[in-house]
Write a structure and sequence with these properties.
Elements lengths: L1 H28 L11 E8 L25 H10 L4 H4 L1 H18 L7 H5 L2 H5 L25 H11 L3 E15 L4 E15 L4 E10 L4 E2 L7 H20 L12 E2 L16 E2 L2 H4 L6 H28 L5 H12 L3
Parallel strand pairs: 1-2
Antiparallel strand pairs: 2-3, 3-4, 3-5, 6-7
């Protein structure tokens, strides 16, 4: 009887410990990561699906197109390539993932995030050493030129690569490209939709951010007589990619990331996830404008500082109204800005 009670007690303690750990993790994950603590970052893996399926499966019933088959295997992907070789949504898959990787790298750099040069990462001996998972050969996917399909599950491999290249964090990204029907009061259309699944790991290979970010294109393609222009749809997919990436950037606390050189632009994000401007750096010309004399310089600096504080407060207010930051974070940042007066 004592043995049974001991087993039950041990089991209860394990369950309670797991519950406490889960609660602690949940609480910790609500705080935005401070990007300055994880620079430089190495982009380790970028993958995507090979087609552009409908976001809502029921929408397929509204079209006359010859739909692609389920892309969950290499065999089905080969069938798609053969049967739908003239479908731009399929034939453009390689160009699409290469462009997505470029948009990702450029957008992160524009935000002030310090990225390691791609060639340093891809040409490292640790990266070259890694072999793909056997299951990868059974799944259809696309990768940008030079990359390998890596998983964040192997902290040992990730840590080995990051240590060699001198990165403090690594980024694993999976893009899911889709199309979505949208209806208006007068007409209906099709827009591009991108879901960006992110695994952000620290220098020890531990996943510290695991989240999906969704972006949609502001441009739509006319949907008439249950048909739409597929080439036109392919052309607007980058809009949705940019929007998803921007949501990812704004999930970080950018405090301390080139703060003296970066300013936030207005209209940070729309509620639906449409494309928005990223933080941008001031140019050298803006920083080194000639001043006639010291008195003018002081007056100009005062006005500039007041204008800067007002602008930053307005932009912070926009972030809060869009639901991108919590009330606690809003008040904290507001007090920091006002303390400069």
């Amino acid at each position: 009887m004592k043995k049974i009670l001991s087993i039950v007690t041990t089991f209860a303690i394990c369950i309670l410990s797991a519950g406490i750990a889960a609660v602690c993790f949940s609480c910790a994950s609500t705080e935005p990561l401070v990007m300055a603590n994880y620079s430089p970052v190495a982009i380790l893996s970028v993958t995507s699906n090979t087609t552009v399926p409908w976001y809502d499966a029921d929408k397929k019933a509204n079209t006359d197109e010859e739909d692609e088959v389920n892309e969950d295997s290499v065999i089905n992907s080969m069938l798609n390539n053969t049967l739908n070789s003239k479908n731009p949504e399929i034939s453009s898959k390689t160009d699409r993932i290469n462009e997505a990787e470029k948009i990702l790298r450029d957008s992160l750099a524009e935000s002030g995030m310090k990225l390691l040069d791609k060639n340093i990462v891809l040409n490292s001996s640790s990266y070259k050493y890694v072999n793909g998972n056997m299951l990868d050969f059974l799944t259809a996917y696309c990768i940008p030129d030079g990359y390998k399909k890596l998983s964040s599950d192997s902290s040992k491999v990730t840590r080995m690569i990051l240590n060699e290249v001198g990165a403090k964090a690594g980024l694993f990204v999976v893009f899911q490209f889709e199309k979505e029907r949208v209806s208006g009061s007068v007409s209906s259309g099709v827009r591009a939709r991108t879901t960006m699944t992110v695994r952000f790991v620290n220098e020890n290979g531990k996943v510290i951010l695991r989240k999906d970010f969704v972006g949609v294109s502001t441009t739509t393609v006319p949907f008439v007589n249950r048909k739409y222009d597929k080439d036109a749809l392919v052309d607007i997919i980058p809009e949705s990619i940019k929007a998803a990436i921007t949501r990812f950037v704004y999930s970080f606390d950018l405090t301390g990331v080139d703060s003296s050189d970066n300013v936030l632009v207005e209209n940070p994000v729309s509620e639906e996830g449409t494309a928005i401007p990223l933080p941008v750096k001031k140019t050298n010309e803006e920083e080194n404008l000639p001043i006639a004399n010291e008195s003018v310089k002081e007056d100009t600096a005062t006005v500039k500082n007041e204008d800067d504080i007002q602008t930053r407060l307005e932009k912070l207010n926009n972030l809060y109204k869009q639901g991108l930051i919590s009330e606690e974070d809003y008040n904290k940042r507001k007090n920091e800005i006002l303390s400069e007066i």
